[in-house]
From TrEMBL:
It is a multi-pass membrane protein. Keywords: Cell membrane, Electron transport, Heme, Iron, Membrane, Metal-binding, Transmembrane, Transmembrane helix, Transport. This is Cytochrome d ubiquinol oxidase subunit II. Belongs to the cytochrome ubiquinol oxidase subunit 2 family. The lineage of its organism: Bacteria, Bacillati, Actinomycetota, Actinomycetes, Micrococcales. Coiled coil: none annotated. It is found in: Cell membrane. It holds the Pfam family Cyt_bd_oxida_II. It comes from the Bacteria. The chain crosses the membrane at residues 6-35, 81-98, 119-140, 160-182, 194-219, 225-246, 253-279, 299-326. It comes from Microbacterium aurantiacum.
Amino acid sequence: MDLAYLWFWIVGIFFIGYFVLDGFDFGVGMSLPFLGKNDVSRRQIINTIGPVWDLNETWVIVAGAVLFAAFPNWYATLFSGFYLPLLLILLALIVRGVSFEYRHQRDSLQWKRRFDTMIVVGSAVPSLLWGVAFANIVQGVPIDADMEFTGTLLTLLNPYGLLGGVTTLLLFFTHGLYFIALKTDDPVRGDARRLAGLAGMLTIVVAAAFLVWTIFIAAGREAPLLVFVIAAAAIAAVCLIMSVLFNARDREGWAFGFGAATIVTAVLSLFFALFPYVMPSSTDPAYSLTIDNASSTDYTLTIMSWAALVFLPMIVLYQGWTYWVFRKRVTRATIERAAAEVH
């Protein structure tokens, strides 16, 4: 198998890992206005991701580094053409990380509320813009013969791109609610489960529309993996429905698992629809970036393959160990006891 094609799928794996892991982080952050009825509840919600959010975020750093090394032309066109949305994502992630660390530095309620607002914004903006970005990559953007993006920010804010953004926003929000229900006790757990039921129903409708539109785009481009696009989209739809059903039956572990599977298969459908392109050109198909013309040399990809063979399993094992260590629920009594000790 050509190493460039192998690394196309490895890039996909890194983004899938990022969207599954940081996706529920974003959902937890966005849930604060709905579930954080008092400071104890808000601390309980934030503490569910306290030990893992920064580790989850490293997946996008690795994904960007892999993209730069394996597909330099894809990286250059993507980061120059999508400069503003990617910058907004970066700023939002910085704001969110700072807020996690600073909200507890003062006992002022107003101080905490300001940082809570920043957590919400820092979670919602990436959730929306990642969907906009990936939808545009799949649909195709104006690229000239020099592999340069010739559009503007408004070019990216098209109906399909915005639908992709709303889809990821709702998917991550629902995914985060499942995680909160899995990691907390009542009353936050019950509130999260009820809200997840409502959010899940809305997500089913929006995600179905986006995936059907994606299938039509792939069919119009005569994508060689169209059958896999349809299959992955269908599996994603089934998994999303199953997550809502298990949530309604108070089985938050299964709901979270099927929610994660929804994101995995939905992102897979996008990569199946994209293949063998990495950035189709809406200006002229001849100007499109493909796996072949955007990749690094075989020598570079060979070195990267050996590095991935060694370090990728270590990353997965370390992250799995981290989740095992912090697997217990964050109870309200624990938060109240910690607050009493401080005072």
